[in-house]
């Protein structure tokens, strides 16, 4: 590859580190971070060429000007722009026509974004393409008290997570509720204690432990041709109430029927770019129900880097080489884990999964997103190790598991 390429990553989180690891491993490329502030996870790393801090980057005008200024500092390099959060993605989508003068990028169009990013629209789009979803109701600010016929317990969550950013007492990412009183009290809590005034999603709760959750990663190139799709079973998710939905460990699987549901949906709307789906297996009818789509790489999506088509390879093939490949269904099995394997095994109660984790460990078929052999920073290694073992304490105090399952260890 003759071009001098610089990946420019928007955001300082684990997502950014996963990108940096893969670009270094596959192509020996350093990355640049542009973010509102520093985070130790990436600040301490040796994999980043530079760290551009832009305090007002979330403001529209500042966002565009900051990225044009960054591009002006690298006139002889081909820049690839990679958003890692919903807020950054929404801004890139909004200004993509202008940004394409300076950067190579592949994100959804505004129409595609609107159809999938907002949960209420996502469920309507799923229905149009016969994709299975839970029973769902939408509640808008100013609506009367919720009294629709629904079976308890239910889940309540916001429609637009990018604007649900304020901290307040009682804030949760997902609320687990058992009565109409609890639903209406939670609606009042969100609308009175925060600036969020968007729609709320009220949805049937599908019973099952973390191991009934599943993840799909999808990528379509600039020509809207599907290039990659994966399917993985969750073993454990983050136990903190504000972080539920962040997966700590998964095993990649192969289920073409479910993968093709996602493929049909995305091809049906002509989607382009990365997407990440959250699903749950419903034992009542034997179907996998789609919960939401993240229109970017997810926090745990880097397990795909253990396949024949890693994140960076997909991007280089598409944005630099302009190649369109045959759709690749990931079918190699790998254990992905943010946390130490002994801790993971402590919280897996299903014997078959316990045996599978042991076997994959023996085979060294493990992807550890925070551990990388070419990371040269001792400070980063110490910090990453500290982060891993913090989960011993977090999982022991698991409020989410206590609330739903009744004790710390019920998984």
TrEMBL record:
UniProt-recorded Gene Ontology molecular function terms:
ATP binding; ligase activity; metal ion binding
The UniProt record lists the ATP-grasp domain at 123-320
- Provide this UniProt record's keywords sorted from A to Z: ATP-binding, Ligase, Nucleotide-binding
- Record's keyword annotation contains DNA repair: no
Q: Which InterPro entries match?
A: ATP-grasp, ATP_grasp_subdomain_1
* Protein's UniProt name: D-aspartate ligase
**Source species taxonomy:** Bacteria, Bacillati, Bacillota, Bacilli, Bacillales
């Amino acid at each position: 590859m003759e071009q001098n390429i610089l990946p420019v990553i928007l955001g300082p989180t684990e997502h950014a580190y996963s990108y940096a690891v893969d670009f270094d491993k596959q192509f020996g490329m350093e990355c640049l971070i542009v973010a509102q502030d520093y985070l130790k996870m990436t600040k301490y790393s040796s994999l980043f060429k530079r760290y551009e801090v832009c305090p007002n980057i979330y403001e529209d005008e500042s966002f565009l000007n900051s990225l044009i200024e960054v591009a002006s500092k690298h006139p002889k390099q081909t820049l690839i722009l990679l958003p890692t959060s919903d807020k950054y993605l929404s801004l890139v989508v909004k200004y993509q026509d202008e940004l394409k003068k300076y950067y190579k990028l592949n994100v959804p169009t505004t129409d595609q974004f609107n159809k999938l990013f907002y949960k209420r629209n996502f469920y309507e789009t799923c229905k149009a393409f016969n994709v299975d979803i839970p029973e769902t109701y939408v509640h808008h600010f100013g609506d009367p008290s919720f009294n629709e016929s629904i079976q308890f317990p239910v889940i309540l969550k916001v429609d637009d997570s990018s604007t649900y950013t304020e901290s307040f007492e009682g804030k949760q990412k997902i609320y687990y509720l058992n009565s109409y009183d609890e639903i209406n009290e939670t609606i009042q809590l969100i609308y009175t204690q925060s600036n969020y005034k968007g729609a709320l999603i009220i949805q049937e709760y599908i019973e099952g432990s973390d191991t009934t959750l599943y993840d799909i990663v999808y990528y379509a190139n600039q020509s809207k041709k599907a290039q990659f799709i994966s399917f993985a079973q969750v073993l454990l998710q983050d136990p903190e109430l504000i972080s539920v939905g962040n997966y700590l460990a998964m095993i990649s699987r192969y289920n073409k029927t479910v993968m093709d549901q996602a493929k049909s949906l995305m091809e049906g709307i002509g989607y382009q770019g990365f997407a990440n789906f959250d699903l749950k297996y419903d034992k009542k009818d034997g179907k996998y129900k789609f919960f939401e789509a993240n229109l970017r790489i997810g926090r745990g999506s880097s397990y795909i880097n253990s396949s024949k088509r890693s994140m960076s390879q997909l991007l280089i093939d598409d944005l630099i080489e302009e190649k369109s490949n045959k759709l690749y269904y990931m079918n190699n099995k790998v254990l992905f884990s943010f946390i130490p394997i002994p801790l993971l095994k402590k919280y897996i109660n299903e014997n078959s999964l316990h045996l599978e984790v042991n076997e994959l460990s023996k085979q060294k078929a493990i992807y550890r997103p925070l551990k990388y052999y070419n990371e040269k920073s001792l400070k980063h290694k110490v910090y990453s190790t500290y982060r891993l073992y913090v989960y011993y304490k977090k999982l022991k105090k698991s409020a989410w598991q206590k609330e739903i399952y009744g004790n710390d260890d019920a998984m």
